[in-house]
TrEMBL record:
GO MF assignments: nicotinamidase activity
Protein name in the entry: nicotinamidase
Domain of life: Bacteria
Primary enzyme class: hydrolase
Classification via Pfam families: Isochorismatase (PF00857)
Domain Isochorismatase-like: 6-206
Annotated family: Belongs to the isochorismatase family.
Length: 211
């Protein structure tokens, strides 16, 4: 059977780049790498996810009296990291990075719209209940191989890659390390271990470009 290769660019948005509301250290450095992958012609399908929160989203510390950003809090009765307000629908912070070659993106999958639950994964909410429809879309397209990269490795990239594996059995999932950046070094190391333990290959963009 023919290979059908897809690239998932996770949350390469202003909000997660320097100058954004939830900046990932050196987050903008993924943009040229992502553009080389996009331009390579090696992917049959390119999808970008976009964190897309309504104002006052329950993952924002500002929505919880007394809560401070980057502390654990609670959302709908479950532990939830309290984030600064970020990627609010319709704001510049939520736009894809302006240098990302978005003309070549086939689908933009928005997520995180439900104020009562966070959605790190591009595939489903954090309670694994409501799905975005992305796994059905990729399976309908006959995707056999999915490369995942973007921001942030220790949150949305990791959860997207793990969900891809679980929700699309048989699809080969890889994580492109140098096309991704994380919030903390310890978080990145743990995320890479966890992805590897589940059978996700950790590769470099040069590996993907060589094939
Ligand atoms: C993300 C925290 C909150 C991410 C999104 O894209 O990794 N992290 N919302
Ligand atoms: Zn978010």
């Amino acid at each position: 059977m023919a290979l059908m290769k897809a690239l998932l660019l996770v949350d390469i948005q202003n909000g997660f780049c320097p100058g954004g509301n939830l900046p990932v250290p050196d987050g903008d450095e993924v943009v040229p790498v992502a553009n080389r992958l996009i331009d390579s012609g090696r992917y049959d399908l390119i999808v970008a996810s976009q964190d897309w929160h309504p104002p006052g989203h329950g993952s924002f510390a500002s929505a919880h009296p007394g809560a401070a950003p980057f502390e654990m809090g609670e959302l709908s009765g479950k532990p939830q990291m309290m984030w600064p307000d970020h990627c609010i629908q319709g704001t510049l912070d939520a736009e894809l990075h302006p240098q990302l070659k978005s003309e070549e993106i086939d689908l933009i999958q928005q997520k995180g719209e439900d104020p009562r639950i966070d959605s790190y994964s591009a595939f489903r909410d954090n309670d694994q209940d409501a799905t975005t429809g992305l796994s059905n879309f990729l399976q309908d397209q006959g995707v056999t191989d999915l490369d995942v990269c973007g921001l942030a490795t220790d949150y949305c990239v990791k959860f997207s890659a793990l969900d891809a594996l679980e929700m699309m059995p048989g699809v080969r999932v890889r994580f492109i390390e140098d096309a991704s950046r994380g919030i903390t070094p310890e978080g990145v190391a743990a995320a890479i271990d966890e992805m590897r333990a589940h059978g996700i290959a950790v590769i470099k963009s040069t590996d993907a470009l060589r094939e």
